[in-house]
Design a protein that fits this description.
Blueprint: H1 2-16, E1 23-27, E2 32-35, E3 41-45, E4 57-60, E5 65-70, E6 73-78, E7 87-92, E8 108-114, E9 118-123, E10 126-131, E11 137-141, E12 144-149, E13 155-159, E14 164-168, E15 176-179, E16 185-191, E17 197-203, E18 210-215, E19 223-225, H2 239-253, E20 259-260, E21 266-270, E22 276-280, E23 285-290, E24 294-298, E25 304-310, E26 319-325, E27 330-332, E28 338-345, E29 351-358, E30 369-374, E31 380-382, E32 390-397, E33 403-410, E34 418-423, E35 430-431, E36 438-442
Parallel strand pairs: 2-8
Antiparallel strand pairs: 1-3, 3-6, 4-7, 5-6, 7-8, 9-10, 9-36, 10-11, 12-13, 13-14, 14-15, 16-17, 17-18, 18-19, 20-21, 21-22, 22-23, 24-25, 25-26, 26-27, 28-29, 29-30, 30-31, 32-33, 33-34, 34-35
């Protein structure tokens, strides 16, 4: 009898003893391949975690990011995304504890690999997906005009024969179509951050174009002209000054420009005074930025905007790239003695890429190469050197900021341009094959 009672007590003691904390699920799954560079790492545990337990989760190679804990789940969010085609190991150590202070029985580790970089490229046959080190794969056939890829992987493109904008979700499915107004040529098609809107420059003939907006979250998406409504317009602004600004944009830059605000709900466009202004998608002006010649893009964190300025009294019409900071101050990023344009902040906001040339001859006949500047130090490095009679333009950063795509075209013949790529840390520039006239990075 006593032996039976002792056995029962021992069994109850074992049952009452708390089990160690355990991992229930991980994402990306262990051993996963082709993981998007913008993926978040999540781990689900058997019990709710101590809210200060995030220090027990580490990622190797090291990635700039932060750990958050909520209930039974811990998550690691990369600040600027993961590197492409890279193997990562996530380790869960003794710092991971539940709310009663119980830890894992032993460290847990799992690994995954991110997908290789890829571009969506336009050829004479349509759009192809071009992977670094791989072969191009057809995506869309037919006569394609401007196209764009969102940060989430959605595709938008102009089908020239049908005169509409086609919008394709990241994982396929039914494509949406937005009709284009007659005789309106689409230039510089771009996605808004968040993927809920498109903007482009609509032009008739050889004009510089004006911005148009497509709100994809509207019940019936349509092409709408976009510009500021309301807000204060300076009544004392002389018409001569406005005409000068307009002339500089059309003659020196030869095209209009726009940029999205990082929140994806506003854009930087030209106002009635021909100054750049931040305008919400409701058409209401948020702020005025000044009489810059052009705008590049905004740093993802919103701390600065890449702009292009020019002194109208300069006989060489040398354009200069500036960082317009959130407090309204500016900082030169390109040398004043050269002619520079088309700046773009990297996703990490630490570097700016732009086109630059010696200021000799007419702006349209200058031999532009790509140059990169480190924002913190001002150190610049040349990335490309086009052959005589050709010029490099329209640089774009890859999702992990390791590569830059661009177009190389003969002087005065942008329609004959071809797509190229070059490593951001240096190396030879490489053309996309088969011959592509333009390219966009795929996340």
């Amino acid at each position: 009898m006593l032996l039976a009672l002792a056995a029962a007590i021992a069994a109850l003691t074992v049952l009452a003893e708390p089990r160690p904390l355990a991992v229930v699920d991980v994402n990306p799954p262990a051993g996963a391949k082709e993981v998007p560079t913008r993926a978040q790492v999540t781990v689900t545990f058997s019990r709710p975690l101590d809210e200060m337990a995030g220090g027990g989760l580490t990622v190797t190679p090291a990635v700039d990011g932060f750990v958050s804990v909520a209930g039974r789940r811990a998550a690691f969010t990369p600040r600027f995304g993961l590197s492409a085609d890279t193997g990562y190991t996530v380790t869960l150590g003794s710092g991971i504890r539940d709310r009663a202070g119980r830890a894992l029985a032993r460290p847990v580790a799992f690994s995954f690999r991110t997908r290789a970089l890829a571009l969506l490229a336009r050829t004479e046959d349509g759009l192809v997906r071009w992977r670094l080190g791989g072969r191009p794969e057809p995506v869309v056939t037919g006569r394609i005009g401007e196209f764009a890829v969102s940060a989430e992987g959605a595709i938008a493109y102009v089908r020239l024969d049908d005169r509409d904008i086609v919008v394709q979700a990241p994982k396929g499915g039914q494509a949406g179509r937005v009709p284009l107004p007659n005789a309106l040529a689409v230039r510089d098609l771009e996605w808004a951050p968040g993927g809920h809107a498109l903007m482009f420059l609509g032009a008739s003939g050889d004009g510089p174009g004006v911005p148009y907006l497509v709100r994809l979250d509207a019940p019936s998406p349509a092409v709408e002209s976009f510009g500021p409504r309301g807000g204060r317009i300076d009544p004392a602004s002389p018409l001569l000054m406005e005409a000068l600004k307009k002339s500089l944009v059309e003659v020196v830059y030869r095209r209009e420009s726009f940029a999205f605000a990082p929140d994806g709900r506003a854009a930087i466009v030209r106002d009635q005074n021909w100054d750049l202004a931040i305008v919400g998608f409701d058409g209401v002006r948020r702020a005025s930025l000044g009489a810059y010649l052009a705008v590049g893009n905004a740093a993802p964190g919103g701390e600065a905007l890449a702009v292009v300025d020019v002194n109208p009294a300069d006989p060489a019409l040398r354009r200069q790239v500036l960082a317009h900071r959130a407090d309204g101050s500016t900082r030169a990023l390109s040398p004043a003695e050269r002619d520079s344009h088309s700046p773009r902040f990297a996703h990490r906001s630490d570097r700016v890429i732009f086109a630059t040339a010696v200021a000799v001859g007419a702006p349209r006949e200058r031999r532009f190469a790509l140059e990169m500047v480190e924002v913190a130090t001002g150190v610049r490095r040349r990335l490309t050197q086009p052959p005589a009679g050709e010029s490099d333009e329209a640089p774009r950063w890859s999702p992990d900021d390791a590569w830059v795509s661009f177009r190389r075209a003969p002087f005065g013949a942008p329609e004959r341009g071809t797509a190229w790529i070059v490593r951001a840390d240096g190396g030879p520039a490489l053309p996309l094959e088969p011959r592509a006239t333009d390219a966009r990075w795929v996340p």
